Model the fold of this input.
Amino acid sequence: MIEVREVTKRYGAKAAVSDLSFTVRPGHVTGFLGPNGAGKSTVLRMMLGLHRPTAGSVTIGGRPFVGWPRGMRHVGALLDAHDIHGGRTGRAHLTALAVSNGLPRRRVGEVLEEVGLGDAGHRRIGGYSLGMKQRLGIATALLGNPPVLLFDEPLNGLDPEGVKWVRGLFHRLAEEGRTVFVSSHLMSEMANTATHLVVIGKGRLIAAESLKDFAARGTHQSVTVRTPDVAALRTVLAEAGASVEPHTDNSLTVTGLSAARIGDLAFQSLVPVHELTPHTASLEAAFMEVTADSVEYASGDAR
Ligand code: ADP
Done:
């Protein structure tokens, strides 16, 4: 479990993260979403003890990362797949890390196989494609077989087959009971990757909830209703607080009430209904909507 408690991080006068609190639980893939510059990398770096919070605390398994003597056995991370010595082979890179962290050397072959670099391990990293570097970065994170894994934009540069593979890997790691925390600035990447989300904007928390609950946030969800008695249904729905837009084909576009509630109200009022179609806001739309709000909110600087 990762706990971020009332964390603020300033770079000089600028606050990259402000009063941020959330918890990342084991057994799930949790997506960490926010537009570029939202503060995601800053938070990940604080989790790894690479930056110190100006205020608040970040703990993994109850204590700061630097308090864990087991390092790579406790937390595995991929922050920047390019931040790696290009002159070494993938195998030499992993072997050096295994030796310096007291990890068994057999893990090197195991993780290379696991990420699909079994045949490329003897080649120099400088010749790797971006996707291969991402795979090597993931192999590095897995080397210590840690219960907690952090990935900063791990899908960048992967082809569709690579993205599918990473998603499968993350799901498996979560099913094994690990804590898997994955950042992205693209909601479309997280939709099939994560089951839980932490969304930040301008360094502040916007949402920390399941993907399902987040999708339901889209306030512009609407329902199409078709009825032979438009006038009667319109009155009933308006009285219940919905906003109703009538169309010429005996249909109404209704916002502010769920499809189930509309159906119940129509039934109670004995108004026949010929169609009841909910239009669920897409995750992407919900994301755009809540992050746009955060930008407005932050510029008002109400807190
Ligand atoms: P993200 O990963 O969500 O794109 P970052 O954590 O990289 O966001 O950045 C958050 C904010 O903090 C940005 O405005 C960025 O310019 C600023 N920032 C990040 N690192 C530093 C630094 N070392 N010095 C000064 N400002 C920084």
Notes: The first helix runs from residue 40 to 47. The pocket of adenosine-5'-diphosphate is lined by residues 11, 14, 16, 34, 36-42 (CB under 6 Å). Residues 5 and 21 are 4 Å apart (CA to CA). Confidence is low (pLDDT under 50) at residues 296-303.
